[in-house]
Every structure is written in C-alpha cells, then in structure tokens.
Specification:
This protein has about 190 residues and is mainly alpha-helical. The protein contains 6 helices and 2 strands, in the order H-E-E-H-H-H-H-H. Pfam families: CDP-OH_P_transf.
Length: about 190
C-alpha cells in the first residue's frame, strides 16, 4: 500500500475517534461570554484534520504518479464515511436538519452503488471535478456547523446554514451528473 492510500486509511481510522469525542462531555470553555463545549471543539479539529487529508493524499498521489485503483476506490469511500458520520452527529446535536442529511447520505449510497455496478463491469470511476466541489462544500458546511459556537461572527448559523444548502445543491447536482454520465451501467440489467 502506497503513502496516499495509507493517508486515506488514516482518514477512515479518524472517524470513530471523531464520533467518540463528539459524544463526550469534557465541560466547557468560556470565551468572550460564549460557552464552547471542549469535546465539540476537539471533535471539530479532528474532522478538519481528517478532511484535509483528502487533499493531501490526492495531491501526493498525482504529483508522484501513485494513483491506484485502490486509491480511486478508498478515497471517495473515506470521504463518504467521514461526511456521513459528521452529518449524523450534527443531527444528534440538533445542528443540521435531518431531511438534508437524509438527502446527502442517500446520494452517497446511490453513487457508491453505481460505482460498485461499474466496478463489476471492470470500470473504476474516479471522482470528477463536480464530485470534488461537492465534497469540499460539504466539508466547509460541516466545519462551520461544528464550529458555530465559536465566538467568531463569520461562523454563525446563517453562514453555516447557507453553506449546508450550497453543499446540498452540489451534492444533488453531482449525483445526477454521475448517473447521467454512467446510465450505460443499467442498459444490460435483467
């Protein structure tokens, strides 16, 4: 397993750590009169670090010509697992509407299913540019929602909510795009 794939696997391994930390109660820090749950702050940092590994592994793989089929499979899977876990945690914290999370996760399952069908036919589909935009809008929205308690006005709920709707838009658009470009996967269905 090459270094980019190891980085991707590390992203997957950070998911249970993120979930456990987000569910803990370590008390609060009071900053400028705002109570900030310590566990949520640490969990948000872990999510952001895990998210940045997505860029790191992709950059390193392309720069050093280490792109593999395993990486093409693991990288989007790691993204989907991380984003899904964070969104479910946000619903549990009443920081994200369940209907949006259901739509986003449903799209992730649907595209993963499409990838599996294509893989069965010998095709490995790497993430396209629209899929990458989708992932980064999701990461920005989730980060903003996780950090909304910080005493910074720009990470307030209006920004975080707007970012979540932008992520939903790109999530649905990229899902439609994947299915439109790969409709041939269903042409030989029985």
């Amino acid at each position: 397993m090459n270094l980019p794939n190891k980085i991707t696997v590390s992203r997957i391994c950070m998911i249970p750590v993120f979930i456990i930390i987000m569910m803990l109660d370590w008390g609060v820090w009071v900053i400028n009169g705002v109570e900030l749950p310590i566990a949520h702050f640490v969990g948000a940092l872990i999510f952001i670090i895990a998210s940045t590994t997505d860029w790191v592994d992709g950059y390193y793989a392309r720069k050093h010509n280490l792109v593999t089929n395993l990486g093409k499979f693991l990288d989007p899977l790691a993204d989907k697992l991380l984003v899904s876990a964070a969104l479910i945690v946000l619903v549990d914290l009443d920081a994200a509407p369940a209907w949006i999370v259901i739509l986003i996760i449903s799209r992730e399952f649907a595209v993963t299913g499409l990838r599996l069908i294509l893989a069965g036919g010998g095709e490995v589909v790497a993430a396209n540019q629209l899929g990458k935009i989708k992932t980064w809008t999701q990461i920005i929205a989730i980060s903003a929602l996780l950090l909304h308690n910080l005493p910074f006005e720009w990470i307030s709920f209006p920004f975080a909510d707007f970012a979540l709707y932008v992520a939903l838009f790109f999530t649905l658009w990229s899902g439609w795009d994947y299915f439109a470009k790969n409709k041939h996967a269903f042409s030989n269905s029985k």
